[in-house]
Amino acid sequence: MPKVDPVLSRCKENNIPFFFENFSALDKYFCVKEAGPYYLITEANIVNLAKTFENIEFPGLATIDARLTSNKKCYYFRCVDNINDSPPHFFGVQNFYYDETKQVFIDTYNNYNDLRHKRLNRCSSSPPTWATVMDAAYLSARYNFKVHIPDLEQKSDSPPPSLLSQKLLLKNILESKYSSQGFEVLKNTNFLKKFWPEIFAMISVPQIKDYHPEGNVWEHALECLKYRKQSEPTLSLALLLHDIGKTVARGDKLKPYQNHSELGVTISYSFLKRLGFSQDLIRDVTFLIRHHMMPAALPTMPLYRISNLLKSTLFPLLLELYRADIESTFRKPDGYYEACRIYRSFLKIENNPYRSAKLGKRVLAQ
Predict the structure, then answer these.
(1) 62 DSSP 8-state letter
(2) What is the spatial distance between Cα 269 and Cα 257, in angstroms, rounded to a whole number?
(3) Residue 96 pairs with which residues in a beta bridge?
(4) How would residue 118 be classed by pLDDT, with cut points 50, 70 and 90?
(5) pLDDT (0 to 100) of residue 365
(6) Residue 360 has pLDDT above 50, yes or no
(7) Tell me, which fold does domain 1-117 have in CATH?
(8) E strands along 225-327, which residues?
């Protein structure tokens, strides 16, 4: 039996009518697990909401009149005089509502064909803004929508998005099934170039086709995301950024990207810190970036060089990064399986009080 949401229940008890809208209604329609926050449209005014919820906030944003945080969930309210005649969002599919009480969908602006064919078309005469671009990227990443707005690719003159909204966008895209499509929208609309230049620089860095037939550093990163088995944030950020050091690395013809792991740590730390990610998350992500080439070298490494690495609680994530990294280049995962066998052998040695590994020896798969 589904859990009763206390905030939604309180709205019903206080006669505050609401529909799910925007991403929340689309989650219901496409049967996608809610990522949060909840987007609600209501005919109640902010006075009614203030009387109902003590801790409610009023950010005064264009499409968010009230914000409530409860039990680590966030609820965004849009107050309108008439739900059937409410100001539309930019994209038609964002104006799709869901009535939880009657368990029916409401297509006020007749955008069902856009939903059916996964198209993003304009439903507003207003010029696109950076917020519009961010919505398009998330809609594309989360639901596989295709963008059909020519002027969305033009440079926007609207105010820049806050760092917090940029952080949430990056997190939301990486948690989505079609992450690479969302990032392509950001690239094609100049968002990357203007706000995430570190990532934009990856587009212009070629790679040796014998090792990376999938393309340049940017294309390789997006291909890696497709091979994830989970959208865990630490792993996802590391996959996106693991080769970002190649944008500044220098070398010779045989090794053109020397020390790119260490350089990538510096760039990634600065980028994630600017967007406001936690120090713990940044530490874990940069650990994976620093050591992302190590699993391939395990068969040739003496134990004293790798014992601390193998003991790390992040090593299983490092193996997952390695697997996605090599499979994205269309190579067989033999190296990954060998690294897993070595890791299991090490754990057997570590967990057996009657056995010990000699520091100068390699860990051989058993």
Answers:
(1) S
(2) 19
(3) 107
(4) very high
(5) 47
(6) no
(7) Beta Polymerase; domain 2 (3.30.460)
(8) none
Domain ranges of the chain: 1-117
The 10 Å CB-count burial string (b at 16+, else e) for 261-284 is: bebbbebbbebbeebebeeeebeb
| Both tokens assigned to 175 | 């948690």
Q: 3-state DSSP call for residue 328?
A: coil
Q: CA–CA separation, 295 vs 335, rounded Å?
A: 8
What residue type is 39 in one-letter code?
Answer: Y
Instruction: Give 304-340 pLDDT, tens digit per residue.
Output: 788 899 999 999 999 999 999 999 888 888 999 999 9
Cis peptide before 37 (omega within 30 of 0): yes
Strand partners, 362: 302
Q: Helix 334-351 crosses helix 303-311 at what angle (to 10 degrees)?
A: 90
Q: What is the mean pLDDT of residues 201-225?
A: 84
The answer to whether 89 touches 82, Cβ cutoff 8 Å, is: no
Tokens found for residue 320: 């997952």
Sign of CA pseudo-dihedral 165, 167, 171, 173:
positive
Q: pTM of the full predicted structure?
A: 0.88
Q: How confident is the model at residue 212 (pLDDT cuts 50, 70, 90)?
A: low
How far apart CA 228 and CA 320 sit, in angstroms, is: 8
How would you classify the pairing of strands 18-20 and 104-107? unpaired
